[in-house]
Amino acid sequence: MKNKKRALYLTTIILFIMFLLIVLPLLWAVSLSFDRSAISSLPSFSLIPHKPSLFNYQAAAKMINLPRYFLNTIIVTTVNTCIAVLFALMCGFAFAKLKFIGKRFWYVFMLAVMMVPFESRLVPLFLQYRNWRLLNSWIPLMLGQFAYVYGTFFARSYISSIPDSLAESVYIDGGSEWRVFLSIIIPLSLPVVSTLAILQIISNWNAYLWPLVVISDYDKQMISVGVALFNSNEYATYYGPRLAVAVLSAIPLIAVYLVLQKHIVASVAVSGIKQ
Amino acid sequence: MKNLRLTKRELKQNVTAYSFIIVSIVTLLVLVYYPMISTVRYSLNRIGIVGYGEEYIGLENYKMLFSQSTFVRAISNTLILSIMGLLTIPVGFLFAVLINSIGNSKLQGFFRVGYYLPNIITGVSVYLIFRVVLMSDGGLLNNFLSLFVGRKVIIGWLADPKFARWGVTIVWVWMNAGYSMLINLSSLQAIPLDIYDAASIDGANALNKLILITIPNMKSCFSFLFITGMINGLARFTDIFIITGNDAYGGAGGTLQTILMYIFQFSFESPNYGVSSAGSMILFVFVLLLTMVNVKLTGFLKDEV
Questions:
Q1: Which chain B residues contact residue A11 at CB under 8 A?
Q2: Per-residue model confidence as pLDDT tens digits over B229-274
Q3: What is the dihedral of CA A20, A23, A28, A29, to 10 degrees?
Q4: Could you tell me if the ipTM is greater than 0.95?
Q5: Could you tell me the fold of the domain covering B72-298?
Q6: Which member of A41, A114, A123 has the closest CB to residue B42?
Q7: How far, CA to CA in Å, does B221 sit from each of A247, B104, B106, B132, B263?
Q8: Closest CA to B175 of B119, B225, B133
Q9: Where are the domains of chain B?
Q10: What is the pTM of this model?
Q11: CA distance B252 to chain A (A)
Q12: A91 neighbourhood in chain B, CB within 8 Å
């Protein structure tokens, strides 16, 4: 018994040390972002700034329009998440509960999309939007959300488990399938809604390649691309301001994570989807 | 033969059902199936400016690609980087075993959330931070190594062709090990405990149990992580592109250019859509093969509608 307890302590200590090593780069970055001496060369390692100051943040504020990028990203992420989750639920409901001709065909039609990586249709998709004269707008970022295949898959298996008897009272009252969907299925599917919403928020927030390709105006750009473009700019050679930007752009998702940590970890573990 | 005509009620039922799925179906037709066909078509044509003359040239674009040493190098880079990226599996497994062994408690919850944290941080922030961490002069990693070696270590983790692949692999593993840990942990916790109890009675020690019970029971988890890891690795782009300073050439003497970066270069930097489409097709075939293996393993399409 005593041995077992000792092993437990030892494992805990090892886990703590490894955790500290994992977050060390983050802590160092935060420290550098407040350090006036992090200019064109790096000061020696320290978790406490050598010359504490807010200079880097003030400098960053002049170099990059972060509030604009944040606003853009929040708008697009919100709209996209709502669209994607709603349409995933609609399809999931149809495949789980409704009878119609061609059901199996359309289900396979949707799931087959998982085998086509987005990257392999990047070029024609870009050219298509160019023909439609929709480049340099948010529309290319949003239209694809009207079909959320992974979401459909998870929504279908969740909605299948909702007993039919609950919907019967609506049908007896003469209600339609849409009534059932809106008044029974959606309220009962909140767990799957939150899982899908979390996954969508994270993936939209991190979207990089597609916005980089379709949006050319700086002030319409998403946060990831905006920050990366800033990073490759010549005036970003100063470490302090660069890390201040990195810290600021990491804050929103970390804040969401701290609030919803258990939900997020569970969503990822259940769905097997990373982002 | 059954009566093929629909009754009015059945017709209504069908119309209602289709009202739920029609938007998504049209979206997939227009934004997935049609572009995919376009990719095939473009890859078989010589395309100057799209819309102004396409000339059918058969497999010329593919031949051209494979005769280019840069493209062949991009394929091998991508495969090497994908395989190196699989390090996330043993690392995640190690984390999971340790976290699992401290038992179900508040502390376990803390470690689960804490070790997953790197995966949640906005990618671009991570890349910016690691550009500094991996700096040859004054970077955190080299400083850390210097402590152990006892003299100053100056390794160009992102610039030196000999080390650059390790540099980006460090970033990849740092970001993804938490995800691997979560998947490993949930599969570890699904192993029935009585198998372990029976083994204890038979006098098995912890190492025996790990090798004889745990690892065999984790097979499907490992293969899932292997396949998805390879798929993600093949389409690798964002982290390397940003960390090398928005350079599709890949930096470090081209040792970091992935297939997708190559495609990007020939789509948006010096456009040759025929060639980049052929490249996209090659990427597609790789991913399709792996996905089919994955479908087979996980039985994704098996369950009946």
A1: 98, 101-102
A2: 998 999 999 999 998 888 888 777 889 999 999 999 988 888 888 8
A3: -170
A4: no
A5: MetI-like fold (1.10.3720)
A6: A123
A7: 34, 21, 25, 34, 32
A8: B119
A9: 8-61, 72-298
A10: 0.90
A11: 16
A12: 20-21, 24
